[in-house]
């Protein structure tokens, strides 16, 4: 699948290129930073999918002029109408998604999302490309960031097992040392040691497996 | 049926620069002419040529105001051109209070939008009884039109300068 990306911002272009490259069989064939260039590239390259940032200048964006970045919708409608083979995705929240607090961090994953009957659903470009098109209109969508669960952080089962195992070892040792109950203390200390040993091993194996599969 | 929250509507009117100078009692009167509406991204609120009954003040989201281009320029620029993007607290659809009460542009939601829709005919009748309110509202609307005209002029000038600058 050949994909064209149009956004004024380098950061958004990179984010979208990363998202495209993560999809099997998808490749970025062109990038444009304004609507004029995007239309010219779409006409020349005839991509399967065009991803357009709605906040796109016709030629140049001016911070002090509110309407200078208003060409994303126009270009999305034009490409949809003139090149019916190209599926057009109009992203409507990239001006907020590029703020520093959003879209960063090692466990943050970006998804394309659209609203269907009031509910947001995630989709990929392949699904968008093969679905039946009721009309040559752009699809209004957003990029949403989700936080993937971290393996190392948090108080998961392994951390709890290590804590209680260590507690058993200490209690068992106290029982043995004070001669209150040598047998019970010994069993408790050994059970605690085994719990700590298997929990640390399990935790290491789980983290290694996560790294290999992502 | 859910009763409209007039206090909340009054707050929305107060946040809009066009209505901000009005007295509380007048804002309350206008709030009574409004209903709250919600749209999804991609929805068309109205099209050029539609009968203009309401004007809108955005609470949440963004709306693109598009004009239909004449066929002579279709091939270069497409059929529609966005002339403004209205943000929260912004107003659009003022054709609802100005003769011939027909929208001259289309309004398309760029995001999920929540807006206050005010009945233009009721506002006109209210203005007739209170000319001082009419003066404030109309001067506010003129400010909106002037600001849009200034933006358009700046875009036109900078793009013309770019197109006439010799390419190296």
List keywords for this structure.
heterodimer; A: 214 residues; alpha/beta; Rossmann fold; 2 domains; seven-stranded mixed sheet; 7 strands; 45% helix; elongated; B: 168 residues; alpha+beta; Jelly Rolls; four-stranded antiparallel sheet; 8 strands; globular
Q: Can you walk through the features of this model?
A:
- The complex is a heterodimer of chains A (214) and B (168).
- Chain A has helices at 10-21, 35-45, 72-82, 94-97, 125-130, 157-177, 182-213, and strands at residues 2-6, 27-32, 49-53, 87-91, 108-116, 119-123, 139-147.
- Chain A is of the alpha/beta class.
- Chain A has two domains: 2-147, Rossmann fold (3-Layer(aba) Sandwich), CATH 3.40.50.2300; 157-213.
- Chain A has a seven-stranded mixed β-sheet with strand order 2-1-3-4-7-5-6, with helices on both faces.
- The longest helix of chain A has 32 residues, at 182-213.
- The radius of gyration of chain A is 27 Å and the shape is elongated.
- Chain B is of the alpha+beta class and 168 residues long.
- Chain B has a single domain, classed as Sandwich (Jelly Rolls), CATH 2.60.120.10.
- Chain B has helices at 6-15, 24-31, 74-77, 120-129, 131-164; strands at 34-39, 44-46, 54-60, 63-68, 80-86, 91-92, 106-109, 113-119.
- The mean pLDDT of chain B is 87.
- The chains are: A alpha/beta (214), B alpha+beta (168).
- The interface between A and B is medium-sized, with 31 and 28 residues.
């Amino acid at each position: 699948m050949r994909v064209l990306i149009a956004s004024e911002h380098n950061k958004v272009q990179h984010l979208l290129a990363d998202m495209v490259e993560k999809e099997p069989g998808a490749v970025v064939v062109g990038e444009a930073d304004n609507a004029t260039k995007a239309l010219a590239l779409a006409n020349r390259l005839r991509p399967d999918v065009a991803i357009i940032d709605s906040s796109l200048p016709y030629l140049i964006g001016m911070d002090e002029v509110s309407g200078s970045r208003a060409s994303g919708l126009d270009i999305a409608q034009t490409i949809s109408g003139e090149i019916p083979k190209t599926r057009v995705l109009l992203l409507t929240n990239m001006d907020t998604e590029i703020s520093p607090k959003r879209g960063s961090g090692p466990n943050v994953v970006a998804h394309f999302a659209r609203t269907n009957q009031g509910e947001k659903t995630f989709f990929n470009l392949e699904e968008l490309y093969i679905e039946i098109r009721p009309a040559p209109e752009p699809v209004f969508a957003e990029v949403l960031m989700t936080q993937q669960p971290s393996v190392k952080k948090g108080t998961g089962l392994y951390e709890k097992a290590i804590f209680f195992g260590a507690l058993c070892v200490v209690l068992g040792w106290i029982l043995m040392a004070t001669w209150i109950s040598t047998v019970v203390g010994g069993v408790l200390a050994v059970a605690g040691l085994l719990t700590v040993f298997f929990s640390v091993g399990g935790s290491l194996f789980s983290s290694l497996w996560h790294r290999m599969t992502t | 049926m859910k009763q409209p929250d007039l206090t909340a509507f009054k707050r929305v009117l107060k946040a809009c620069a066009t209505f901000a100078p009005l007295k509380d009692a007048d804002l309350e009167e206008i709030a009574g002419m409004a209903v709250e509406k919600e749209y999804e991204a991609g929805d068309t609120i109205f099209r050029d040529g539609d009968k203009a009954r309401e004007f809108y003040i955005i609470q949440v989201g963004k709306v693109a105001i598009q004009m239909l281009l004449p066929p002579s320029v279709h091939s270069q620029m497409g059929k529609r051109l966005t002339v403004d993007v209205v943000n929260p607290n912004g107003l659009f659809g003022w054709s609802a209070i100005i003769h011939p009460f027909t929208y001259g542009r289309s309004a398309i939601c760029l995001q999920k939008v929540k807006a206050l829709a005010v009945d233009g005919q009721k506002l006109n009748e209210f203005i007739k009884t209170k000319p001082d309110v009419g003066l404030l509202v109309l001067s506010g609307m003129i400010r909106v039109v002037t600001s849009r005209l200034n933006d358009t002029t700046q875009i036109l000038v900078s793009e013309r300068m770019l197109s006439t600058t010799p390419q190296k």
